[in-house]
Amino acid sequence: MISGTARGHRLKAPRGNSTRPTADMVKESLFNIIAGAVEGALFLDLFAGTGSIGIEALSRGAYKAVFVEKSGVCCGIIKENLEFTKLSHGALIIKDNAGKAIESLAKESLKFDIIFLDPPYKKNLAAETLKIIVKNDIMKNTGVIIAERHTGDLLPDRLGDLAIARDQKYGDTVLTFYNKAQNKQ
Fold first, then answer.
1. Topology (CATH level 3) of domain 39-180
2. What is the CA radius of gyration of the chain?
3. Where are the alpha helices (DSSP H) in 64-119?
4. CB 43 within 8 A of CB 116
5. pLDDT tens digit string along 158-175?
């Protein structure tokens, strides 16, 4: 279920368990935490699945959301969900794996206010994706990265100029928030 301007819309999801949508409680908590940063933001939704997180960001005032998903079926569903919520105008869908998409976005000199990643659990993809984000420097200095992960998927406290600002646990799901570390002089 979506909040914001598209409030009440139920999004389409693929059949089976090929995707693991973010639980409504976790999504609501996420957007309560980042509420002040969403309005006017350039938002990146990595491992987008159904697109629910990026669509929520658009519905809450992000000016643009980029959806990265390697599944063609899921990309089609993201497109349908964007059309259903009438939020297509602020969206770009990239069918590719996260690493290649990040490198392409860096070549375009894009810098995001908010980067959300929700890779498959228990495959160490969150840590690997964070390394690629740091290497390609696609986050604004005032930005935030949120990694949704399983409690068993460990992430470093610091990575390059990123540092964990907050961990929020919901059962076996954790939202880990990274900000750029402030230089201390």
1. Rossmann fold (3.40.50)
2. 15
3. 72-84, 98-107
4. yes
5. 999 999 999 999 999 999
